Amino acid sequence: MLGKLGEKRIVVALAGSPNVGKSTIFNLLTGLSQHVGNWPGKTVEQKTGVLHRGDLIFDLIDLPGTYSLTANSAEEQIARDYLATEHPDVVVAVINAASLERNLYLVAELIELAPRLVIALNMTDVAEQEGRKVDPEALESALNIPVVPMIASKNQGLSELTRAIEQEAARPKKSRDIKHIEADSEIEKVIDHAAELLTNESVVPYSRHWTATKLLEGDEQISRLVKQRLPQPQSTELESFLKANESAAVTIATLRFEWVEKIVKTIQQRPPLGQVSLTEKLDRIATHPIWGIVCLIAVMGIVFSFVYSIGVPIQQFLEVSIIDRAREFIYNGLQSAPAWVPSFLGEGILGGVGTVLTFIPILFFFFLAWAVLEDTGYMTRVAFVTDRFMHLIGLHGKSVLPLILGFGCNVPAVMGTRIIESKRARLLTILLTPLIPCTGRMAVIAVIAAAFFGSQSILVSTGIILFSLLMLAVSGLILNRFVVSGERTALIMELPLYHLPNPRTIWLVTWQSLVAFVKRAGTIILAMSVLIWFASSFPGSSIDESFLAMIGKGLEPIGKLMGLNWQLMVALLSSFVAKENTIATLSILLGGNNVGLISALKGILVPASALAFLVVQVLFIPCVATVAVVRKETKSWRWTVFSVVFQLVLSFSMAILVFQIARLTGLGI
Amino acid sequence: MDSERIEEYLEAIYKRQRTETPVSTSALAGDLGVSLPAVTDMLRRLANEGFIEYTANKGAILTNRGNKKALSVIRRHRLWERFLSDILGMKWDKVHNEACRLEHATSPETENKLASLLGNVDTCPHGHPIPDKDGNIREQHVIPILDFEPGQSVCIETVIERKPDLLGDIDKLGLKPKTIVDIEKKNSDGSVELKVEGQHQRLGKEIAELLLAHLVPKKGKTATVEEIALSRLSSGESGIIKSYASGRSMLGRCLSLGFTPGSLVKMLRNSSGGPVLVKIHDTEVALGRGVAEKIVVARNK
């Protein structure tokens, strides 16, 4: 491809399994030039980026992490479709030197689809430390593919990699003569026979031989494709031939592994007898059914105290020094303008910006802690030890990860469900995520509980959080049983070796999560904030005569059942914009600052009502940003509406129940 | 007292103990090529040191301490044998005598370096298990190939080094440890006819009785080794994957992670009710219990 004069662009695709440091290498090569989006029509992240090297421009694309190129998941399908249709100039296979056998399996598959291939042999330090030192030159000559040893976490080997890519790009495209299946073997005859049953038109963009192999491997997507295109008699003939050769899938995989094993034997040292690796030592605790849970609780305790002890002071500082000052500035500066102008700017716009801004410090530290835990490999252990509990609600361990992320913010948590392969489990996790009390909810709980329950507020807050987790479990049981249908898939998950996180990766991941939050949640919060401002300022002159009040008063009959008056119903509704808005709305409705708010609240609420308010607040419809991502990730209005209605019913009925019980037991009038 | 001789004695007692306990003085004298009084004298001293229990007219039994020391010598011996044959390329009938000299002059540091250089070999070139650093040794379940029946397939595990001059012949016949042979016929003169890698061979009794083997399941026939669900392996046990009970949907994902038939899988954690953690192809993989129940393995003894 030619761009500007003298410029040459080459398209480079990064392929590799999960946990090989592929993202780290991609991040190092592209830095902040990268663009994060979705693969067309898929909820799988697509990252692209650019690297300049003299007159040469690398257009880099990060393929999804896959273990093979058989379509067991959307990721694998994307990766191979890309290779087969886009024909990148060079494919870089990133492999982990510490688990060479499994990684070379993917290389065995890549060889067939990528005429120009470079192997980035990453994590050579980890391999050495585990007693599995690899000889890169021997690997290179065994495969006849350029091999670049790297330690991406220490930024080593990058320039060698780009040089190797450049050289490979200049090499004529020619298939390599590497065969992991011998030409005259029995299985090759079976593959050839299947290939003869196909037509060239039916396999586009793949080759017949490749398609035949995948058909024999039981690849569902390829089977569907061929079935649609192949005319009758052949189609039936092929089907019966495949049926008769069902065992071929196992044979092909076995042959590939045997080929890999033969290579590995000659190029890699074996660890000494009886050596216990660091990972195994740590996993004795981290995956233990009891200590593993203790460890998880301890880690989460540390994470949350870290996040709040640093995040909250910064948040308060921003509130006071930026938002409050800006508001003062607006009101002072616009004294001559009509009254609604400063109100619109100060409450509508600044209110929205302020809400977003106050989330940022806490979320920043939360995402940071998350990125560190994820990059070290600990999070997969969390999925492992919690798997047995998640089974009770029809999920497996991987669903725990987005749920924990939900404690920070539900928005990235819903997006985080992408790691779950099964559609059913993913949908169920998405529906349950909003029941996790996020930072915004916890802030509201803290204020209300402190106002009403004084010294017992910690007890009450903890109780409310545990209550919402209990509701999550109960909802899981019900949804799993009666609502969500589909095939259940079991946990099959690699546990990577523990390693020290790479600061640059941590930083990029944190930064990207934060940017995604601001883009996705921030804009919606701002828009809704303006809308709420409008509803609270018009048509009457005071808030009591506004649209908002009308809606609140309309809801009062339901509110009465849970002991809430119209102001509280309005506050609850405003939490739809952002959970923190509850407090802000209450201060507007009841007047004045936080101190005034507390005494005002005490004047209009009995403890039973306060308790009911906490319950309804924690279980209420998630914020609008979460609802938006639920729609985006489920791609279904039906499920989005279901999610909203479900939580509406759940929160109201639980709050009514709690209020009535509390009243009967004497917590109020 | 010189340690080399102590080690020689303990090693000899250890080896004898597998066939007779207590080990008689005369048997030791024969093995070590020394006089009876010298043996008696030495055994008394070993008993004083706490390496053996010795009763004059019965013989010697290794104490725990003696056993440990014997295993440590054997470990060094077999590591050296490996080194000599694998690294230096020495013929396997020569390595025994060399190793006998080297084993006594090996410091723990050399031993560790040697072990890490060799990687995870677990047998000597003749197929005897190498004890680990802590003095544990893998039990071998093998019998002479003469005891198998025609029609059976067996895997040669160990070659007894009693007659070093025959080792060269055994090598030429391709009968090294880990070779699978089909027993075809047993003759009245004690010779055995068998098939080794497609070649028919006839072994004289002299050679046949040096080969120890275990049965392997014939291809296509029902196996005689115990085949169980992967979920039934306890933590620390390992097995070889045999087949899949069902589930085409999970098959693809399992295969691409390396759960192919013939692969060695080690159970790292199996606590009741939860998922299992296994090691396969150098990678730790968590499997839901449901998946682990559908993978059939042959338990390694």
Descriptive key words:
heterodimer; A: 669 residues; alpha/beta; Rossmann fold; Helix Hairpins; 3 domains; 7-stranded mixed sheet; 8 strands; elongated; B: 301 residues; alpha+beta; Arc Repressor Mutant, subunit A; Diphtheria Toxin Repressor, domain 2; SH3 type barrels; 4 domains; 6-stranded antiparallel sheet; 14 strands; 35% helix
Summarize the structure.
Chain A has 669 residues and is of the alpha/beta class. In chain A, 64% of the residues lie in helices and 7% in strands. Chain A is elongated.
How would you describe what is shown here?
The complex is a heterodimer of chains A (669) and B (301). Chain A has 669 residues and is an alpha/beta fold. Chain A is built from 29 helices and 8 strands. Chain B is of the alpha+beta class and 301 residues long. Chain B folds into 4 domains: 3-62, Arc Repressor Mutant, subunit A; 73-139, Orthogonal Bundle (Diphtheria Toxin Repressor, domain 2), CATH 1.10.60; 143-216, Ferrous iron transport protein A (FeoA) (SH3 type barrels); 227-299, Ferrous iron transport protein A (FeoA) (SH3 type barrels, Roll), CATH 2.30.30. Helices cover 35% and strands 24% of the residues of chain B. Chain B has helices spanning 3-17, 25-32, 36-49, 64-87, 95-102, 108-118, 164-172, 205-208, 248-256, 289-292; strands at 52-55, 59-62, 143-144, 153-159, 180-186, 192-196, 199-203, 211-216, 227-229, 238-244, 264-270, 276-280, 283-287, 295-299. In chain B, the strands form 3 sheets. Chain B has a 6-stranded antiparallel beta sheet with strand order 3-8-4-5-6-7. Chain B has a 6-stranded antiparallel beta sheet with strand order 9-14-10-11-12-13. In chain B, strands 1-2 form a two-stranded antiparallel sheet. In chain B, β12 (276-280) and β13 form a beta hairpin. In chain B, α1 (3-17) packs across α4. The mean pLDDT of chain B is 83. At the A-B interface, α3, α12, α13, α16 and β8 of A face α6, α9, β13 and α10 of B.
